[in-house]
């Protein structure tokens, strides 16, 4: 079956893409660039670098834009998925959803309307095992946004390694955040994955942080051989 991967550039969609590749053909990546940083549906920090990730993976990218207005952005997503169907003949859509009923239910509704299969390979996976698998399989990601206490500016640009995961596990217990960040507490950007032909190197970046909220914006990046 030919699948389109809803791709934000973060760890969850990248890992879900790799999982889907173990069973089916991922024909393209599908990405939506939201102009609203408070989007309910879409990951926003550094989405403009998704084309570089697509190049690293050797996969075509179908990309659209949205103003990011609640519910209206779903029509924009539907249009981009429809375009992927026309260009690449996809028969299903893959998501990186782990627990978010808001996102999963709306994507499933779009898929049902378009007569597409909806595949959620990470749905209700154990978060501890999932993060450990990310590292053991060779995924590399950096934290590109923090949106909750107790994260301070030092988390921005930090690699998601074993020490970072241990700290996240403590914070998840003491502050009741989701360990994977799916509650919007933090976001990531993937620099390397098992299916990437090249890795991404961040050459320049800038950070902005204020009152428990901050972003790490990549301003210059390139591909290098693995």
Structure description:
With 226 residues, this protein is α/β, with parallel strands linked by helices. The chain has two domains: 2-119, HUPs (Rossmann fold, 3-Layer(aba) Sandwich), CATH 3.40.50.620; 127-225, putative n-type atp pyrophosphatase, domain 2, CATH 3.90.1490.10. It has helices at residues 11-21, 50-57, 72-88, 101-113, 127-136, 162-175, and strands at residues 2-6, 25-34, 61-66, 92-94, 117-119, 140-146, 186-192, 198-210, 213-225. It has a five-stranded parallel β-sheet with strand order 3-2-1-4-5, with helices on both faces. A four-stranded antiparallel β-sheet has the order 7-6-9-8.
Provide a brief overview of the structure.
This protein is α/β, with parallel strands linked by helices and 226 residues long. The chain has six helices and nine strands, in the order βαβαβαβαβαβαβββ.
Strand content: 25-35%
Number of structural units classed as domains = 2
Main beta sheet = 5 strands, parallel
What global shape is seen? Answer: globular
How many H/I helical runs? 6
* Biggest sheet strand line-up: 3-2-1-4-5
For the termini, the CA-CA separation is 29 Å
CATH class of the largest domain: Alpha Beta
Q: Look up the CATH topology of the largest domain.
A: Rossmann fold
Number of extended strands: 9
Task: Output mean pLDDT.
Answer: 92
By CATH, the superfamily of the largest domain comes out as: HUPs
């Amino acid at each position: 079956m030919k699948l389109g991967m809803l791709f934000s550039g973060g760890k969850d969609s990248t890992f879900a893409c790799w999982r889907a590749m173990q069973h089916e053909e991922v024909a393209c990546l599908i990405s939506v660039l939201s102009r609203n940083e408070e989007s309910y549906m879409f990951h926003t920090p550094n989405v403009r670098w998704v084309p570089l990730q697509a190049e690293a993976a050797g996969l075509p990218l179908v990309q659209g834009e949205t103003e990011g207005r609640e519910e209206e952005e779903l029509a924009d997503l539907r249009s981009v998925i429809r375009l992927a169907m026309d260009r690449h003949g996809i028969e299903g859509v893959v998501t990186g959803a782990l627990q978010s009923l808001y996102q999963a239910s709306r994507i499933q509704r779009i898929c049902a309307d378009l007569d597409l299969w909806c595949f959620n390979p990470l749905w209700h996976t154990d978060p501890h095992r999932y993060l450990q698998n990310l590292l053991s399989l060779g995924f590399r990601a950096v934290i590109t946004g923090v949106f909750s206490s107790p994260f301070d500016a030092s988390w921005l640009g930090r690699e998601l390694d074993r020490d970072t995961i241990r700290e996240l596990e403590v914070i998840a217990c003491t502050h009741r955040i989701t360990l994977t960040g799916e509650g919007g507490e933090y976001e990531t950007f993937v620099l390397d994955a098992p299916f990437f032909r090249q890795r991404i190197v961040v050459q320049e970046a800038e950070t902005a942080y204020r009152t428990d909220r901050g972003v790490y914006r990549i301003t210059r990046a390139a591909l290098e051989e693995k």
